[in-house]
Amino acid sequence: MSIAETAKSNGVDFYDYTKKLLTDLPNLGIHHNPEILDQYMPWSKKIQAECSK
Q1: Which residue in 14, 31, 36, 37 has the fewest CB atoms around it within 10 Å?
Q2: Residue in 17, 24, 22 with CA at minimum distance from that of residue 51
Q3: 3-class state of residue 11 by DSSP
Q4: How many domains is the chain partitioned into structurally?
Q5: pTM of the entire structure?
Q6: Farthest-apart Cα atoms in the chain, separation
Q7: Distance between CA atoms of 14 and 12, rounded to whole angstroms?
Q8: Mean pLDDT per 10-residue section of the chain, whose length is 53 residues
Q9: Residue 26, Cβ neighbours under 10 Å: how many?
C-alpha cells in the first residue's frame, strides 16, 4: 500500500499530511531519536487530529 493510500485509509488528508511532514521532519533530529517518527505515521492520533479530512 502506498503512503497516499495509507493516509486515506486512516482518514488523513494526503496534501495536509505531506505538507506537515515536509515542514516538521527537517527540524526534528530524527537521526538521534528515530522513535519520533512514530508520531508522524498516518495512523497516529496526533496526525489524524491535525490532518484529518
Answers
A1: 31
A2: 17
A3: coil
A4: 1
A5: 0.86
A6: 32
A7: 6
A8: 93 97 92 91 96 88
A9: 9
Chain segment 37-46, per-residue pLDDT in tens: 999 999 999 9
Q: CB under 8 Å to 41, separation ≥6 — which residues?
A: 47
Q: Give me the amino acid identity at 15.
A: Y
Q: For cell 495512523, what's the residue?
A: 43
Single-letter residue type at 32: H
Residue whose grid cell is 486512516: 10
| pLDDT at position 40 | 96
pLDDT at 38: 95
Say which DSSP state 41 is in: S
- Domain range for 31: 3-50
